[in-house]
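Entry type: protein chain
Record version: 2
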Amino acid sequence: MINDEQLNELRLSGERVRVVRDGLESNDVSGIVVAWDEEHVIIRRRNRRVVKLSRGYSYQLHSEPRISPLDA
């Protein structure tokens, strides 16, 4: 689970993140961190829509290679 300090760094930098939800790359969500609470993170996608996702998913920088949660 991603911690508050990491989320704050991502929000302030404005870097795109990739949220890996399962083994399929087509199910990944890409965008920037907007807000969060104890259980969820809100990501703004490129089309300006927001998505509310669980903090339990894997959060990775979009510029880095994708790491599947099944590989870890």
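Comment: The domain at 4-61 is CATH 2.30.30.100 (SH3 type barrels.).
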